[in-house]
Amino acid sequence: xxxxxxxxxxxxxxxxxxxxxxxxxxxxxxxxxxxxxxxxxxxxxxxxxxxxxxxxxxxxxxxxxxxxxxxxxxxxxxxxxxxxxxxxxxxxxxxxxxxxxxxxxxxxxxxxxxxxxxxxxxxxxxxxxxxxxxxxxxxxxxxxxxxxxxxxxxxxxxxxxxxxxxxxxxxxxxxxxxxxxxxxxxxxxxxxxxxxxxxxxxxxxxxxxxxxxxxxxxxxxxxxxxxxxxxxx
Amino acid sequence: xxxxxxxxxxxxxxxxxxxxxxxxxxxxxxxxxxxxxxxxxxxxxxxxxxxxxxxxxxxxxxxxxxxxxxxxxxxxxxxxxxxxxxxxxxxxxxxxxxxxxxxxxxxxxxxxxxxxxxxxxxxxxxxxxxxxxxxxxxxxxxxxxxxxxxxxxxxxxxxxxxxxxxxxxxxxxxxxxxxxxxxxxxxxxxxxxxxxxxxxxxxxxxxxxxxxxxxxxxxxxxxxxxxxxxxxxxxxxxxxxxxxxxxxxxxxxxxxxxxxxxxxxxxxxxxxxxxxxxxxxxxxxxxxxxxxxxxxxxxxxxxxxxxxxxxxxxxxxxxxxxxxxxxxxxxxxxxxxxxxxxxxxxxxxxxxxxxxxxxxxxxxxxxxxxxxxxxxxxxxxxxxxxxxxxxxxxxxxxxxxxxxxxxxxxxxxxxxxxxxxxxxxxxxxxxxxxxxxxxxxxxxxxxxxxxxxxxxxxxxxxxxxxxxxxxxxxxxxxxxxxxxxxxxxxxxxxxxxxxxxxxxxxxxxxxxxxxxxxxxxxxxxxxxxxxxxxxxxxxxxxxxxxxxxxxxxxxxxxxxxxxxxxxxxxxxxxxxxxxxxxxxxxxxxxxxxxxxxxxxxxxxxxxxxxxxxxxxxxxxxxxxxxxxxxxxxxxxxxxxxxxxxxxxxxxxxxxxxxxxxxxxxxxxxxxxxxxxxxxxxxxxxxxxxxxxxxxxxxxxxxxxxxxxxxxxxxxxxxxxxxxxxxxxxxxxxxxxxxxxxxxxxxxxxxxxxxxxxxxxxxxxxxxxxxxxxxxxxxxxxxxxxxxxxxxxxxxxxxxxxxxxxxxxxxxxxxxxxxxxxxxxxxxxxxxxxxxxxxxxxxxxxxxxxxxxxxxxxxxxxxxxxxxxxxxxxxxxxxxxxxxxxxxxxxxxxxxxxxxxxxxxxxxxxxxxxxxxxxxxxxxxxxxxxxxxxxxxxxxxxxxxxxxxxxxxxxxxxxxx
Lengths: 233, 960
Hints:
The complex is a heterodimer. Chain A has helices at about 60-70, 110-115, 130, 145, 195-210; strands spanning about 20-25, 30-35, 45-50, 55-60, 80, 90-95, 95-100, 125, 135-140, 165-170, 175-180, 185-195, 215. By secondary structure, chain A is α+β, with helices and mostly antiparallel strands. Chain A has two domains: about 5-50 and about 130-225, Gyrase A, domain 2 (2-Layer Sandwich), CATH 3.30.1360.120; about 55-130, Alpha-Beta Plaits. Chain A has a six-stranded mixed sheet. A five-stranded antiparallel sheet of chain A has the order 5-6-7-4-8. Chain A has a two-stranded antiparallel ribbon with strand order 1-2. Chain B contains 24 helices and 47 strands.
C-alpha cells in the first residue's frame, strides 16, 4: 500500500518514502504507520497526521451546536479537551471550533458533523480543515526545545500547560499549536496552511535535527489498535 | 615548531586547559603547541609571542590588553574568518591563525611607515583632504580603500549553519560573576525561571582569576560555593560563552552563542556585567607587553601561562597589589609597584606585597614605555601636585607592564535600554540612572567592588522588586579608580583609543577644531567608534575633554551606547530565516512534467512546460493545444472564499460593483470589486451554491486584501454573514478547449454536461473521478471550459485522472504564460497587470457592470468619476506585422508627450500578429485610431486601436 493508492493524499507524502515508512489505510487515505528511524529512546518525534479527519466549525452557534452533540467543550478560547473517544475539541474563539479525529478509531461526532449542510445550520458553518490545514504531531521530551527554534510563544512544559492552544506563528507561518500530552509524555499538534505543508515540514525537520529527532509513523504516538472503535478499512 | 619552556605554570594554574589533551595550530604559517581549552591569545603567549596584530591606522604592533575580547588589538583571522577575538576563540587541532592589517609580515609591516608620519595625519585628515583638486578622489579612492578596513573577507568561505532560537525567562541575568550568581540564586529561591548569560566559557567572572585577599584563596572558595548552590536549582539555565549584544524594549535581549542568535524575552533583566579595567595614558602605552593587571591574572589562573619574566605594576588601587602578588606567585620578578596615589594608601594586599619585599613607589607614574615591538622597560616619573607627570627619575627594565588604575562599570546594556549613565565624581566612575522599571544593575557594574558587598547587591537584585530598593555604590567604590590617569608626553604616542590609534593630541585637536560636545567629538575624532565601542577609551576621552574645557566630567556627559555590544558576524545576522512558500497539491506533477516555475505572490506556479531555451515554442504549443483540443491549467492558487448566512446576498451586493442580490442559485457571475475611491482592487467569479451560500474566487495575490476588506465591512455593517477563507482547502483546475466537455464526461457521472443543462456561467456540485467537486463553466481563456474545485488532498489525483482520460483528446497541461496569451486574445484584463492603483471600471470599459443599486463600495466615487469624464482608457491594439514587439510598461507617445502605456502585449497565432492592451487618452481610443508606442532603444512603433475581444468576438466558442 502506498499513499498514491488513494484519491486523498497527505500534503507531505513525498517526504515519507515507501522504503522508509510503512503505510496503513484509514479508509480514504494512507497514513504512515511505522518508520525505520523510530526507537523508543528518541526524545523527539515528528509525525504526519494530515490525512486524518478533522473539522472546522464557524459561526456564533458553533460552540452551542457542538455541545448539543455531546462534546465536552473547553471553558475558554484557546483551550482543548480530549474527548472520551480520543478526539480533540479545540475552542479557537467564541465563534470557531476545531475537532480533530482520534489518532486511532472513529470520531463519535464525525457522522453528525459530516451531515451539517455546506450552507450551515443555526449559525454554525462547516469549514474544510482537513484540506485547508496540514496536521503534524510533535512528541517527546525535547519538543519545547524544538519549538523554541520556530515559535516566539513560550511553549515550555511548565508554562504552556496540557490542553492549551496557541494561535501563533511557527516558522513565520500562521499555525494552531495544541498541547495534548499522550501517555504522560509531551505531545503537540500543529495545524497550518496546507499549501505550505512541505515548507513547514522542512522547517520542522531542520529544527528536530539538533535534538536527534526522527520522523515517525503514527504508531509512535503509542495509541494501541485496540482502542479502535471501528476499522476504517 | 617552537615551544619555549618556562611560559607554562604548573597546576592548579590553568583551570581552563586540559594538559592531557595537547593540540597543534599554526600562526602566520608556523606551527605551535597548545592545550585543549587554550585560546589563540593564551596559546601564543605561552609560546612567547606577544604581537598579535597591527593597529588600524599606524600599523603599530599590538598585543593583549584586556584578554577579555574587548578591544581590537587581538583581532585575528581564524581559518579564513576575519576579525575573531584571539582571546575568545578556543583552539581546535589544526586551526590556522593569521594576523591582520599588515603589508608584508606581522613582524615586518611595510605600512608601519605611516606611524612615522603620524604628525602629518591630523585628526579629520580624511575629511579635509582628497577632495581637491577636482577629480583627485578618483585617484585616491582605490588607494584608501586598499588600506581601509580590518581583515579580509573570504569569499570562498563555506556556508555555516547559523540559526536563531527564542528563549524565555522570568529573570535574565547578564553576567555570571559573584553578583550575577548571587542574583540568580536569590531569584531561583523565589521560584523564578532564571537564565544566566555569560560571555566566558565558565561561570564565576572575576572569581575565576582575581585575587580578593592576601593569600589568594577566597575568590576560588566563593566561586565554588556559589556554583555549587547554582547547581541545586533546576529553574536556572546557564548560557556560557554567550554574549548579550543588545537590550531592547520590553526586555527583549539578543544573545549570540556560537552560531546561534537567541531572542530572549525576560520579565526582568539584571545586569551583573562587572566593571572593565581602564588604561593609563602614557607614551607607548600600546606596546605589546603592556596589559591590564586582570589580563595577566587571566593568563596565570585560567590558562597557566606566565605573562612575562620581569614586571612593573602600575596601580592606583588595592587590586594592583593583588596583581603583583599573583605575578610573584607565578614566578614573575615584580621589580616595582608604581602607585599613582600619594602617601601610604592600601590595605592588606599592600602589606602582603611589602612583606614579599616588592618595591613600592607611591606618588609616581609611568611616563613612557620603552621598546620596539614589545616593551623593554618603563620610564618612571613623580606626579606633580596638579596631577601631571614630573621629570623622569628612573628607567626600569621589564618585559611586562601591568596596569590597574581603575575601572569603568560595564553599563552599555543599560544604555541600550534607555538608561542614562552619570559620572560620579566621588568614585570617578559612571552610575546607572533612569533604568527601565524591570531592570536592575548589580555588583561592580553598580559600583560594589568589595566581594561581600557585590554578593549582597546581587542577592538584593535577584530578590527584587527593583526601584526603591536599588542602591548604588558603597565604600568599596572609593579609591578604586584614579580620577585622571593621564600623562601626556611631549613626543606624543600616548594612546587614548587603541582601536582608532587616537592619541591625546588627537582628542585635544578635535576640541580645538570646535567639536567640543562629547557626541560630536566622538564622531569627528572617531573615539569609541572602533570594535571596542569605547569600552577602554570613552572615560579617558571624557576626562581629557573635561580637563581641556575646564569642566567636570559630569558636565561633559557621555556618549550613548548602542547595540550591538560587541561584534556580530554576518552569519549570525543572516542565518536561518523563514520564508514561507505555498505550493499547489499538483506542484510535484508540474515539476515531473518539466515545468518552469514562477513566483506568484507567495505561490509557485508553472510558467510553461519545457526547457527555458525552448520557452517560446513551448508556450505556442500550449496555446495551440487549448485552441484546437484541450489544455489543463492548475488554478489552485486562486483565492477562494465561502460566504454564508442569511445576509450573504446583501453582503456581496454591497461589496462588489456587480449585482448579486438576485443572482440565481447554480449560476456564476463575474465579480468586480472597487475600494471606496472607486479604484479596482480585485475581480473573480461569484458562484451561488445555495440561497444563502456563495463560493467566491479572487485573484491569487489579491485574496488576502479582499478578505481583510470583507472582515472590515462586515464589522461595520453587522450583517449575519460568515466569511471563511478556503483558498488552500480546494485544489482547482481549468480544463479548457473544444474537447473539454468530452474529457470531463469521461470522469463525471452525476453532472449533466449538456450545453443547455449546464450552460455557460453555470455552477454544479457533483463528482469528478468520484471526488466531490464544484464545477463551474467559465471562459477566461475564451474556449469551452470547466473550472473544477476539489478538496486539496485530492488535487493531485484529479490532475492525474484528467490527464489520463484527456490524452486521447489531446489534453496537455499549460502554464501561466499560455494562459496570459489566451486571455489577452479574449481581451480579458488581469487586475494588477492591466489595472493599477488608480484604475476605475469606467477606464477599462466596465462601467456597465455597475449594477443599478443603491449602494456598493466605491459607488459614490464611481459616479464622481463618471461626471468628471475619462482621463484615459484601456484599449485593445494591434501592431503592424514586422514591427518590434512592445513590452508591458512601454510608453504611448503623443506629440512627444507620454499619453499612456502598454499593459499587456503578445504575439498571437490565433489572431495573427502582435496584440495588446494599452492605456491611451480618450481621443485616441476610438476604433481605428492609430497611436505610437516607444519601444526598447527609443524606437517608435505604430499601433491601431481595434475592437475587443481580439478572438471569437461573438463568444461562440466558450458557449459551445
